[in-house]
Amino acid sequence: MTEVPIEAFHLHGAARKSRWLITCDHASNNVPPCVGGGSLGLPDADMQRHIAYDVGAAGVTWALADALNAPAILSNFTRMVIDPNRGLDDPTLLMKLYDGTIIPANRAADEVEKARRVDAFYAPYHAALTELAARQDDTVIIAIHSFTPQLNGRPARPWHIGILHAFDDRLSDPLLALLQSEDDLCVGDNEPYAGHLPGDAVDRHALQMGRANALIELRSDLIETSDQQIVWAKRLAPILTQALIQMEAKDAG
Length: 253
Fold this sequence. Notes:
The chain has 7 helices and 9 strands, in the order E-E-H-H-E-E-E-H-H-E-E-H-E-H-E-H. It has helices at about 45, 55-70, 105, 110-135, 170-180, 200-205, 225-250; strands at about 10, 20-25, 70-75, 95-100, 100, 140-145, 160-165, 185-190, 215-220. The protein has a 7-stranded mixed sheet with strand order 1-3-2-6-9-7-8, with helices on both faces. It has a two-stranded antiparallel ribbon with strand order 4-5.
């Protein structure tokens, strides 16, 4: 892989030949030293919240990649530095106010600063993802995210897991059906969010390239510990495998 700043991303199992590619856009709450001296000016409590990263998603990504013997790529910078799951023209690419919290180190960030962060973190992450995805003609991308159990002033979210998808539902349809057949799961179909945003990571690396894909959202209180993350990964791996088999059978038929 191309040499890039260590702050940009982690690769796990990069030499594995599996057609699966597991991604985690919001894996870390790390603030690299070249941004605010390593601080966004927020208290630690805020840096542990969903505004900084997807709680538990990194552990699930590592464990799922191992369970599928697949490569994985994980961001190594908080989404508040620059959000790798946004298009370059998305106004939320560099957030100054997030879920009611002002981000001090971002308040005065101008277009020059945004471009610097794009070059240092966003671009290397996506370049590496592009390279990994292109190694095989039949790459299948699984994006791992997590969501909070309840937003302020809103009802509790009932879903244990959600599958997000856009117009390419080749994999998401059988995946949803398999998950919904599990008696103990409340499964969201494009819940708690709907589909994808234009220019986001799945759009860029899967939809625009014709690659089968699914975005998995797990409720963060269910994957807080390493044991929980491993349990979910081991549960998801055979379900994903079966969903892929069903997808291929339908395509062949």
